[in-house]
């Protein structure tokens, strides 16, 4: 029997075929999960084309900065899934490009607010709306983070602060939702060639460094994050919550 037979997964953050969220969607669907993908209006064509590759996948519009759209998206997902959700995947992050190009010291109030709102607060907003749909049977919520939350990665700037806030939110949500058997975790993926990563200066050079320094002497692939997401979605991870799981070929353990 497929690992996720009968499970229902609501996934935020698919943008194109390189998205980590898309790798996660494929991994979950391959093990029997029914999917609903949330999309931003400007990304509809790309997400719709991808969704067509997984039969039965539904789409809902959602801008995570708009409470009314979040309300409507979770209401619609609940309807599609028959009143419950088992898995919620948060792969949402954004900061204005200027905040990643300028020195961190020049971070603007507006840029800070945007990065924290979209990249961190959105997890809290999603979890709040998912809780009524999960509490009867429990579930798994997980988000994508990055080790810049703990170490300085030049040019990651305010996004690093947002990822630190995201990880702290994971722990507090894990504490509050645990009584309903809802687990909340994060995956800290190594550098991948995604749309978001290409906006960071020096990204290519850093990927080269990882392949030389990481214990496995290589970079990771999107599918490896997808496999970890599958584990967190399944009963195999039923005793794990509030954790950050690194999928980076071991780079995070190194001193340089």
Automatic annotation (TrEMBL):
Gene3D superfamilies: Enoyl acyl carrier protein reductase, NAD(P)-binding Rossmann-like Domain. The active site is at residues 146, 156. It catalyses: a 2,3-saturated acyl-[ACP] + NAD(+) = a (2E)-enoyl-[ACP] + NADH + H(+). NAD(+) binds at residues 13, 19-20, 40, 63-64, 92, 163. Keywords: Fatty acid biosynthesis, Fatty acid metabolism, Lipid biosynthesis, Lipid metabolism, NAD, Oxidoreductase. Substrate binds at residue 95. Its EC number is 1.3.1.9. Pathway: Lipid metabolism; fatty acid biosynthesis. It comes from the Bacteria. GO terms for biological process: fatty acid biosynthetic process. One of its GO terms (molecular function) is enoyl-[acyl-carrier-protein] reductase (NADH) activity. Pfam families: adh_short_C2 (PF13561). The keyword NAD applies. Belongs to the short-chain dehydrogenases/reductases (SDR) family. FabI subfamily. This is Enoyl-[acyl-carrier-protein] reductase [NADH]. It comes from Reticulibacter mediterranei.
């Amino acid at each position: 029997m497929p690992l996720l037979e009968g499970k229902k997964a609501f996934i935020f953050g698919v943008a194109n075929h390189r998205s980590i969220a898309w790798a996660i969607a494929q991994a979950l669907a391959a093990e029997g999960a029914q999917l609903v993908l949330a999309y931003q209006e400007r990304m509809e064509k790309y997400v719709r084309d991808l969704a067509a590759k997984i039969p039965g996948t539904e789409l809902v519009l959602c801008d995570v900065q708009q409470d009314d759209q979040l309300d409507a998206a979770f209401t619609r997902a609940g309807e599609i899934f028959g009143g419950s959700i088992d898995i919620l995947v948060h792969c949402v992050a954004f900061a204005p490009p200027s905040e990643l190009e300028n020195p961190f010291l020049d971070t603007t109030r507006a840029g800070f607010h945007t990065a924290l709102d979209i990249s961190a607060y959105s997890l809290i907003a999603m979890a709040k709306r998912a809780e009524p749909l999960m509490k009867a049977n429990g579930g798994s919520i997980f988000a994508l983070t990055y080790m810049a939350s703990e170490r300085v990665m030049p040019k990651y700037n305010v996004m690093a602060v947002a990822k630190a806030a995201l990880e702290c939110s994971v722990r507090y949500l894990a504490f509050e939702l645990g009584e309903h058997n809802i687990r909340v975790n994060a995956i800290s993926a190594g550098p991948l060639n995604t749309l978001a990563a290409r906006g960071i200066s020096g990204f290519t050079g850093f990927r080269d460094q990882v392949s030389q320094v990481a214990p496995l002497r290589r970079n990771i692939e999107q599918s490896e994050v997808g496999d970890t997401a599958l584990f967190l979605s399944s009963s195999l991870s039923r005793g794990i919550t509030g954790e950050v799981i690194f999928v980076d070929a071991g780079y995070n353990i190194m001193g340089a």
